[in-house]
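Repro case for the chain-ordering regression, as requested:
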Amino acid sequence: MTDELHFLMAARREKLDAMRARGIEPFAYSFDRTSTAQHAVSLAPEDQSSEASERVSVAGRIVSMRAHGKTAFAHLADATGRVQLYFRRDELGDAYALIDMLDIGDVIGVSGVVFRTRSGEPTIRVAAFEVLAKSLRPLPFAKEETASDGSVVRHMGFSDPEQRFRQRYADLAVNPEVRATFVARAGMTRAIRAFLDARGYLEVETPVLQPQYGGAAARPFVTQHNALDMALYLRIADELYLKRLIIGGMERVYEIGHDFRNEGVDRTHNPEFTMLEFYEAYADYEVMMDVVERLIVAAADAVRAVEPFTDAVPVFTTPFRRIEWLGAINAGLGTDILALDHAGLIKHATRLGVPRAAAMSRPKLMDEIFQLLVESKIVEPTFVVDYPLELSPLAKPKRGDARLTERFELFANGRELANAFSELNDPIDQRERFEAQAALRAAGDLEAAAVDEDYLRAMEYGMPPTGGVGIGIDRLLMYLTGIQHIRDVILFPTLRPE
RNA sequence: GGGCGGGUAGCUCAGUUGGUUAGAGCAGGAGCCUUUUAAGCUUCAGGUCGUGGGUUCGAUUCCCACCCCGCUCACCA
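-- result from build under test --
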């Protein structure tokens, strides 16, 4: 059936027309609120015989309605919660006829005094009300029952995952607890900004559209600039631009923004996601480990402050455990992985069950083996330190062991939460690393980086020693809240068009 | 991409071993009801049973293909 002709919508259009026939315009310009729903509830007198002295005006959406002839009850929801409304014909006179033209979903403004009903529920006795926006399309509100222990039981409702994400507006309107996730998300990023700002960091914005992408291993989205007649890539990382700023003398910078990776969509991957990167001149990865630890704790405190997540957020003991990449993997493998040639790596990877190992490059094989033997088994937050040089084309070699780099990743619950290094600041070494990547790329590794000549030019001017960190904000929120699917922490996850 | 499960009313779901009018609750219309709260009572309406083919006297049901969704594996260092 077509929406336009649907009987449910037709009925609402008829009510709209009936209101206008009475000279009422049901789409308002503004409404002066004197109270929120939450505040109105708090005004209710203790005993049932009296009522609050103060008259309140509240606005929100009608989420339930029970009409009884000459009286009617409804619940009004705003951002703070819900409050019951009581309409009486004795009180409203001719205006009471408008009750027949209201629907669940309408946005209305009411004023009246707060009292308690026979059953004790705080309720506004409506003295006047107006329709602020007529709802022409029915929202799938669920019936809610307040159990004797005060918990709310929702009956049926709006649960189809596809429709919830396609119509997040309806999801948020109907399932108010969804909002809490995004309140927590905002609290978390606010805490992170406050933490970095307090440390003297400057928040910056670098290009999303880039002529050359880099800073990570991933396949990009490509787009076309018409006037310049050139291809542009959506960034896969912020890294190389933020380090250009370090070279320019902005000694502490961070950016929170979207990166884009042209890869699969699943429980932990959305094509666009939010990345925090921060860089600090004159710091090495030891300093950054300490910063990351405190930043994670600050983020966790912020999420813990949001009601439904208080118990979900892990309580950390610092310092986090540290293990060495090479020691951990060699212990699992029973031999020195760095002593293995390509054929030996393929043999071990295959033995461990890595599919299609024969087609993989050395770095890829090492990472696969690491994931299986070490990463997947980490539960408590753990810094894995000192990654092999060939896995880390932007990191400085480790002092005292040129096979490794000063790099760490933070893992918890088998997932990567942060990736960081003492940034490579030797432009000659960086060129060699880029060229090694380019060779992998030429050999068919679609995720290997290309040589970035402009970045090398910037480095040649002189880049101070720098510590840098990347943290996936969506993943961090998932970890802290215990939410299992990335689409539940993103307001509008990527979907196929309808 | 592989495997498994699913797509039936606006929402949440039953059901059809192939058969005539496809069901429920909520939401909706009409009526009654001046403290209800999953309000209640009476009554009415609401469906191309994901799409397209095939088999059949007859397909929402069986067969084939396709589309979409979920879970999962793979991929995503």
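Ordering looks correct now. Residues 177-320+380-489 of chain A form a domain with the BirA Bifunctional Protein; domain 2 fold (CATH 3.30.930.10).
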